[in-house]
Design a protein that fits this description.
Helix content is 39%, strand content 14%. The chain has 331 residues and is α/β, with parallel strands linked by helices. The longest helix has 16 residues, at 237-252.
């Protein structure tokens, strides 16, 4: 396969770009890198990172051939988009595809979501201003009340494609199958990982509709890393306990759980790209390493062990309990 259309001579590391695997992104016509970058970490939610560190991370990833970038106004309540906008300076616009979201904005569950047409239009324009771009390649939403407004954004040139995302894959499937507006992409997060494989049950349906399929958050927001999750992680104590056991075992074997988690994701057929939150050059290098080189014999043995002896203790590996907590706040 030749160079993708996002390749920019003089900017990219051509050898790295030729090494990257690209997949046809459903019916969009885009060629997306197998590894893509999420920018939820470009804010205070994942620690204290400077704009310069985020800029170095982004430039490292894009120059190496990563060409799909994801953000949202909910990440840091606008901070992630603002920081990403600063980091995008110096990167040719044609070198990347950019996706953001609408629908979820605030921390308070009572005002967390707003799917009204007015809010959706304002959100699109606000995101474009923060990001410093004229258009984004994809906009994601949770339910189909906002889809006609997103279709309007595509017609006005503010977006190129429309996608859906959310917790339950069943809800995404229902939205896709019932929507009267053409949907181009689907982003499912933490649902094709060492903890949960729910996305598998819907891949055939999504593929039959020629959707671009994004498998996001293979580290399950830090659960599947030796460092563990942030204090705010919404998972149940049972899930956190099992993951902590896996973390301790990996540490005892001097193996990084995050590497095992991403290798697992890269081996799963179906998704066109794996979206990973990265806010340091080290994380970019680490994810590129497992993408290109896989696991050594010891790491393979540790992966088999944690799957057979630790993660098998979980009957349920998702935290859709967060949805129930949100519903309880509704009148």
């Amino acid at each position: 396969m030749g160079l993708p259309e996002t390749f920019v001579p003089g900017f990219h590391d051509e050898a790295q770009v030729r090494k990257m695997k690209y997949n046809v992104f459903g019916g969009t016509g885009l060629m997306v890198s197998q590894l893509s970058i999420g920018t939820g970490g470009f804010c205070f939610l994942y620690g204290d990172y400077t704009v310069e560190q985020c800029r170095e991370t982004l430039h490292k990833a894009v120059k190496a051939g990563v060409n799909f970038i994801d953000t949202a106004p909910y990440y840091g309540y606008g901070v992630s988009e603002e920081v990403l906008g600063q980091c995008l300076k110096g990167i040719p616009r044609e070198a990347y595809y950019l996706a953001t979201k609408v629908g979820r904005y605030e921390a308070d569950p009572k005002v967390m979501f707003d799917f009204s047409a007015e809010k959706t239009r304002n959100s699109i324009d606000t995101s474009l201003k923060r990001l410093g771009v004229d258009y984004v390649d994809s906009l994601d939403t949770v339910i189909n009340e906002t889809l006609p407004v997103l279709e309007e954004a595509v017609k006005n040139g503010k977006a190129k494609f429309i996608g859906v995302t959310g917790y339950p894959v069943s809800t995404l499937s229902k939205c896709i199958n019932e929507s009267k507006v053409k949907i181009d992409t689907v982003l499912s997060y933490t649902r094709l990982s060492l903890l949960d494989s729910a996305l598998r049950d819907y891949l055939c349906d999504f593929q039959s509709k020629n959707l671009g399929i994004i498998n996001a958050a293979g580290h399950c927001l830090g659960l599947l890393t030796n460092g563990g999750p942030q204090p705010w992680h919404p998972a149940t104590e049972k899930i956190k306990s099992v993951c902590a056991e896996a973390q301790e075992y990996c540490k005892s074997q001097q193996v990084e759980l995050a590497k095992l988690a991403m290798h697992y994701c890269f081996q799963q057929p179906g998704p066109h790209t794996n979206l990973v939150g990265m806010n340091s050059v080290h994380l970019v290098d680490s994810n590129l390493d497992v993408l290109y080189n896989g696991l050594n014999k010891k790491e393979e043995e540790v992966l088999k062990y944690v799957q057979a002896n630790i993660f098998n203790k979980l009957d349920k590996g998702d935290w859709e309990i967060e949805i129930e907590k949100y519903k309880q706040t509704l009148p």
